[in-house]
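Entry 12.
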Amino acid sequence: MKGKVYIVGAGPGAVDLLTLKAASLLRAADVVLHDDLVPQDILDLVRPLAEIVNVGKRCGRHGTSQQQINALMVECASRYCTVVRLKSGDPAVFGRLGEELDALREAGISYEVVPGVTAATAAAAAASFTLTDRRAASALVILTGHNCHGQSLSRTLLDPEQATYAIYMPGPDYGTTARELLRLGLDESTPCAVVSNAGREQQQTRFLALNELESVTGVAAPAVLVVGKVVGKTNFDLAPSSAQELFQLASNPRPFV
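Predicted 3D structure (C-alpha coordinates):
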Protein backbone atom coordinates (compact mmCIF):
# COMPACT_ATOMS: atom_id res chain seq x y z
CA MET A 1 0.00 0.00 0.00
CA LYS A 2 1.34 3.42 -0.93
CA GLY A 3 1.88 6.01 1.78
CA LYS A 4 0.80 9.63 1.76
CA VAL A 5 3.01 12.63 1.05
CA TYR A 6 2.43 15.83 3.02
CA ILE A 7 3.97 18.88 1.40
CA VAL A 8 4.44 21.13 4.43
CA GLY A 9 5.37 24.81 4.71
CA ALA A 10 8.05 25.44 7.33
CA GLY A 11 7.39 29.18 7.32
CA PRO A 12 10.21 31.73 7.64
CA GLY A 13 12.20 29.56 10.04
CA ALA A 14 10.99 30.35 13.54
CA VAL A 15 9.59 27.29 15.31
CA ASP A 16 6.76 29.26 16.88
CA LEU A 17 5.57 30.39 13.44
CA LEU A 18 4.94 26.80 12.32
CA THR A 19 1.30 25.85 12.03
CA LEU A 20 0.04 23.35 14.59
CA LYS A 21 -0.64 20.91 11.76
CA ALA A 22 2.92 21.23 10.45
CA ALA A 23 4.38 20.53 13.89
CA SER A 24 2.07 17.55 14.38
CA LEU A 25 3.06 16.03 11.03
CA LEU A 26 6.76 16.44 11.76
CA ARG A 27 6.32 14.52 14.99
CA ALA A 28 4.41 11.75 13.18
CA ALA A 29 6.53 11.47 10.03
CA ASP A 30 8.38 8.32 9.02
CA VAL A 31 10.67 10.32 6.72
CA VAL A 32 11.24 14.06 6.20
CA LEU A 33 12.66 15.44 2.95
CA HIS A 34 13.62 19.03 3.76
CA ASP A 35 14.89 22.13 2.00
CA ASP A 36 18.36 23.42 2.82
CA LEU A 37 17.00 26.59 4.43
CA VAL A 38 14.94 24.76 7.06
CA PRO A 39 16.73 25.41 10.39
CA GLN A 40 17.77 22.72 12.84
CA ASP A 41 15.31 24.01 15.47
CA ILE A 42 12.44 22.86 13.25
CA LEU A 43 14.08 19.56 12.34
CA ASP A 44 14.48 18.86 16.07
CA LEU A 45 10.70 18.34 16.17
CA VAL A 46 11.07 15.19 14.07
CA ARG A 47 10.89 11.98 16.11
CA PRO A 48 14.25 10.23 16.64
CA LEU A 49 13.37 7.09 14.67
CA ALA A 50 12.38 9.01 11.52
CA GLU A 51 14.69 9.36 8.54
CA ILE A 52 15.72 12.95 7.72
CA VAL A 53 17.04 13.77 4.24
CA ASN A 54 18.36 17.15 3.10
CA VAL A 55 17.26 17.63 -0.51
CA GLY A 56 18.06 21.34 -0.60
CA LYS A 57 19.14 23.42 -3.57
CA ARG A 58 21.07 26.67 -3.01
CA CYS A 59 22.06 29.30 -5.56
CA GLY A 60 25.61 28.67 -6.77
CA ARG A 61 25.87 25.29 -5.05
CA HIS A 62 25.18 21.84 -6.43
CA GLY A 63 22.34 20.02 -4.72
CA THR A 64 19.53 17.61 -5.40
CA SER A 65 17.80 18.25 -8.72
CA GLN A 66 14.05 18.72 -8.85
CA GLN A 67 13.72 15.50 -10.82
CA GLN A 68 15.62 13.64 -8.10
CA ILE A 69 13.40 15.14 -5.41
CA ASN A 70 10.28 14.11 -7.31
CA ALA A 71 11.58 10.55 -7.68
CA LEU A 72 12.57 10.40 -4.01
CA MET A 73 9.09 11.44 -2.87
CA VAL A 74 7.54 8.68 -4.95
CA GLU A 75 10.07 6.12 -3.73
CA CYS A 76 9.55 7.09 -0.07
CA ALA A 77 5.78 6.82 -0.46
CA SER A 78 6.28 3.19 -1.52
CA ARG A 79 8.26 2.43 1.65
CA TYR A 80 6.76 4.68 4.32
CA CYS A 81 3.27 5.49 5.55
CA THR A 82 3.81 9.19 6.31
CA VAL A 83 6.19 11.19 4.14
CA VAL A 84 6.76 14.90 4.86
CA ARG A 85 8.24 17.08 2.12
CA LEU A 86 9.26 20.10 4.22
CA LYS A 87 9.65 23.33 2.26
CA SER A 88 10.71 26.80 3.40
CA GLY A 89 8.02 29.45 3.64
CA ASP A 90 4.79 28.47 1.92
CA PRO A 91 4.92 25.64 -0.65
CA ALA A 92 2.60 27.47 -3.05
CA VAL A 93 4.79 30.60 -3.31
CA PHE A 94 7.90 30.03 -5.45
CA GLY A 95 8.28 26.55 -3.97
CA ARG A 96 8.07 24.45 -7.16
CA LEU A 97 4.91 22.95 -5.71
CA GLY A 98 3.35 22.45 -9.13
CA GLU A 99 6.17 20.21 -10.34
CA GLU A 100 6.03 18.07 -7.22
CA LEU A 101 2.25 17.71 -7.36
CA ASP A 102 2.48 16.67 -11.02
CA ALA A 103 4.96 13.92 -10.09
CA LEU A 104 2.76 12.64 -7.27
CA ARG A 105 -0.37 12.63 -9.44
CA GLU A 106 1.45 10.77 -12.20
CA ALA A 107 2.55 8.11 -9.71
CA GLY A 108 -0.90 7.85 -8.13
CA ILE A 109 0.41 8.96 -4.73
CA SER A 110 -2.01 10.44 -2.18
CA TYR A 111 -0.93 13.89 -1.01
CA GLU A 112 -1.93 16.92 1.02
CA VAL A 113 -0.54 20.46 1.03
CA VAL A 114 -0.09 22.20 4.39
CA PRO A 115 0.46 25.96 4.00
CA GLY A 116 3.06 27.96 5.87
CA VAL A 117 3.79 31.62 6.56
CA THR A 118 5.38 33.03 3.40
CA ALA A 119 8.42 35.33 3.33
CA ALA A 120 6.56 38.48 2.28
CA THR A 121 4.11 38.45 5.18
CA ALA A 122 6.83 37.40 7.63
CA ALA A 123 9.04 40.30 6.53
CA ALA A 124 6.22 42.82 6.84
CA ALA A 125 5.33 41.55 10.31
CA ALA A 126 8.97 41.65 11.43
CA ALA A 127 9.41 45.22 10.20
CA SER A 128 5.99 46.35 11.49
CA PHE A 129 4.43 47.54 8.26
CA THR A 130 1.51 46.43 6.11
CA LEU A 131 1.64 44.98 2.62
CA THR A 132 -1.77 46.38 1.74
CA ASP A 133 -3.57 49.48 2.98
CA ARG A 134 -6.87 50.73 1.59
CA ARG A 135 -5.43 54.28 1.77
CA ALA A 136 -2.28 53.50 -0.20
CA ALA A 137 -2.00 50.01 -1.71
CA SER A 138 -4.90 47.91 -2.99
CA ALA A 139 -2.76 45.36 -4.83
CA LEU A 140 0.12 43.05 -3.90
CA VAL A 141 2.36 41.69 -6.66
CA ILE A 142 4.80 38.95 -5.62
CA LEU A 143 7.69 38.41 -8.05
CA THR A 144 10.77 36.22 -8.15
CA GLY A 145 14.17 37.61 -9.07
CA HIS A 146 14.95 34.35 -10.90
CA ASN A 147 12.61 32.62 -13.33
CA CYS A 148 13.12 29.64 -15.61
CA HIS A 149 12.53 31.75 -18.76
CA GLY A 150 15.18 34.35 -17.87
CA GLN A 151 12.67 37.15 -18.32
CA SER A 152 13.13 40.59 -16.76
CA LEU A 153 11.01 41.69 -13.81
CA SER A 154 9.23 44.28 -15.95
CA ARG A 155 8.24 41.64 -18.52
CA THR A 156 6.94 39.30 -15.82
CA LEU A 157 5.06 42.10 -14.07
CA LEU A 158 3.28 43.42 -17.15
CA ASP A 159 2.51 40.20 -19.03
CA PRO A 160 -0.90 38.83 -17.96
CA GLU A 161 -0.02 35.51 -19.60
CA GLN A 162 2.81 35.05 -17.08
CA ALA A 163 0.99 36.23 -13.95
CA THR A 164 -1.29 34.72 -11.34
CA TYR A 165 -3.94 36.96 -9.77
CA ALA A 166 -5.18 36.24 -6.27
CA ILE A 167 -8.12 38.54 -5.63
CA TYR A 168 -9.51 38.91 -2.14
CA MET A 169 -13.21 39.76 -1.69
CA PRO A 170 -13.98 39.22 -5.41
CA GLY A 171 -17.78 39.13 -5.02
CA PRO A 172 -20.65 39.30 -4.79
CA ASP A 173 -20.64 40.63 -8.36
CA TYR A 174 -18.15 38.30 -10.01
CA GLY A 175 -19.15 39.60 -13.43
CA THR A 176 -17.67 43.02 -12.66
CA THR A 177 -14.44 41.41 -11.48
CA ALA A 178 -14.28 39.29 -14.65
CA ARG A 179 -14.78 42.30 -16.92
CA GLU A 180 -11.99 44.19 -15.13
CA LEU A 181 -9.63 41.27 -15.64
CA LEU A 182 -10.55 41.01 -19.31
CA ARG A 183 -9.74 44.73 -19.69
CA LEU A 184 -6.30 43.99 -18.21
CA GLY A 185 -5.68 41.74 -21.20
CA LEU A 186 -6.47 38.30 -19.85
CA ASP A 187 -7.95 35.80 -22.27
CA GLU A 188 -11.57 34.81 -21.63
CA SER A 189 -10.54 31.13 -21.41
CA THR A 190 -8.07 31.78 -18.56
CA PRO A 191 -8.63 29.15 -15.80
CA CYS A 192 -10.05 30.40 -12.49
CA ALA A 193 -10.71 28.98 -9.05
CA VAL A 194 -13.11 30.43 -6.51
CA VAL A 195 -12.11 29.17 -3.06
CA SER A 196 -14.51 29.69 -0.17
CA ASN A 197 -13.54 29.08 3.50
CA ALA A 198 -10.07 27.84 2.53
CA GLY A 199 -8.69 25.24 4.91
CA ARG A 200 -11.90 24.90 6.91
CA GLU A 201 -14.39 22.06 7.06
CA GLN A 202 -16.80 24.11 4.93
CA GLN A 203 -14.23 24.65 2.16
CA GLN A 204 -15.53 24.65 -1.38
CA THR A 205 -13.55 25.19 -4.58
CA ARG A 206 -15.11 25.88 -7.94
CA PHE A 207 -13.09 25.65 -11.17
CA LEU A 208 -14.22 27.52 -14.27
CA ALA A 209 -13.04 29.80 -17.07
CA LEU A 210 -12.83 33.58 -16.75
CA ASN A 211 -15.78 34.09 -19.10
CA GLU A 212 -17.93 31.89 -16.82
CA LEU A 213 -17.34 33.97 -13.68
CA GLU A 214 -20.44 36.07 -14.30
CA SER A 215 -22.62 33.05 -13.46
CA VAL A 216 -21.11 32.61 -9.97
CA THR A 217 -23.51 33.40 -7.11
CA GLY A 218 -24.07 32.44 -3.51
CA VAL A 219 -20.39 32.04 -2.55
CA ALA A 220 -19.89 32.00 1.21
CA ALA A 221 -17.39 34.50 2.61
CA PRO A 222 -14.47 34.62 3.00
CA ALA A 223 -13.56 33.79 -0.57
CA VAL A 224 -10.54 34.26 -2.83
CA LEU A 225 -10.50 34.24 -6.62
CA VAL A 226 -7.33 32.86 -8.20
CA VAL A 227 -6.87 33.51 -11.92
CA GLY A 228 -4.09 32.23 -14.16
CA LYS A 229 -2.57 29.29 -15.99
CA VAL A 230 -1.48 27.66 -12.74
CA VAL A 231 -5.13 26.95 -11.93
CA GLY A 232 -5.30 24.72 -14.99
CA LYS A 233 -2.35 22.62 -13.77
CA THR A 234 -4.67 20.08 -12.17
CA ASN A 235 -6.36 16.86 -13.18
CA PHE A 236 -9.51 18.78 -14.04
CA ASP A 237 -10.61 19.41 -17.62
CA LEU A 238 -10.88 23.20 -17.88
CA ALA A 239 -11.46 23.41 -21.64
CA PRO A 240 -13.36 26.66 -22.30
CA SER A 241 -15.71 24.87 -24.68
CA SER A 242 -16.97 22.69 -21.87
CA ALA A 243 -20.08 23.86 -20.08
CA GLN A 244 -19.43 21.44 -17.22
CA GLU A 245 -18.93 23.05 -13.82
CA LEU A 246 -16.38 21.31 -11.65
CA PHE A 247 -16.16 21.26 -7.88
CA GLN A 248 -13.51 20.01 -5.52
CA LEU A 249 -14.89 19.75 -1.99
CA ALA A 250 -12.78 19.33 1.10
CA SER A 251 -15.46 17.90 3.39
CA ASN A 252 -18.86 19.26 2.55
CA PRO A 253 -20.13 18.08 -0.86
CA ARG A 254 -22.52 20.98 -1.36
CA PRO A 255 -21.79 23.12 -4.44
CA PHE A 256 -22.25 26.86 -4.61
CA VAL A 257 -25.82 27.80 -5.35
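Annotation: The helical segments are 20-28, 40-43, 66-79, 97-107, 119-127, 153-158, 174-184. Residues 153-249 form a domain with the Methyltransferase, Cobalt-precorrin-4 Transmethylase; Domain 2 fold (CATH 3.30.950.10).
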